[in-house]
């Protein structure tokens, strides 16, 4: 079952348009959807995979988009760092 699509009339503030352009996105609804997906991901409201779905992009394409915009897409926790330090010492 695919997600239900809803037609929306959208009026954007004139202040918002330059910000979207600054992100490299135009005024098209698809680009706005991608912007929303990025915002949801960076605010940790949705997972990386879910943000890719929302943006209707393949996961690898969404990751590439984030990389191109210098947006971190993967977290490296302090616990993971310590585990890697232990592994390197044992190596």
What share of residues are in beta strands?
under 5%
Low-confidence stretches: none
Biggest sheet details: none
**Distance between termini?**
48 Å
> What would the average pLDDT be, to the nearest integer?
82
Radius of gyration: 17 Å
Please identify the structural class as seen in this structure.
mainly alpha
Number of domains: 1
> In percent, how helical is the residue content?
55-70%
Question: How does this model look, in words?
Answer:
There is one protein chain. The protein is mainly α. It has helices spanning 16-22, 29-42, 48-54, 59-68, 78-90. The chain is elongated and about 60 Å long. The mean pLDDT is 82. InterPro entries: UPF0175. It holds the Pfam family UPF0175.
Write a brief structural summary.
The protein contains five helices and no strands.
Name the descriptors.
91 residues; mainly alpha; UPF0175
Layout of strands and helices, then pairs:
Blueprint: H1 16-22, H2 29-42, H3 48-54, H4 59-68, H5 78-90
InterPro entries: UPF0175 (IPR005368)
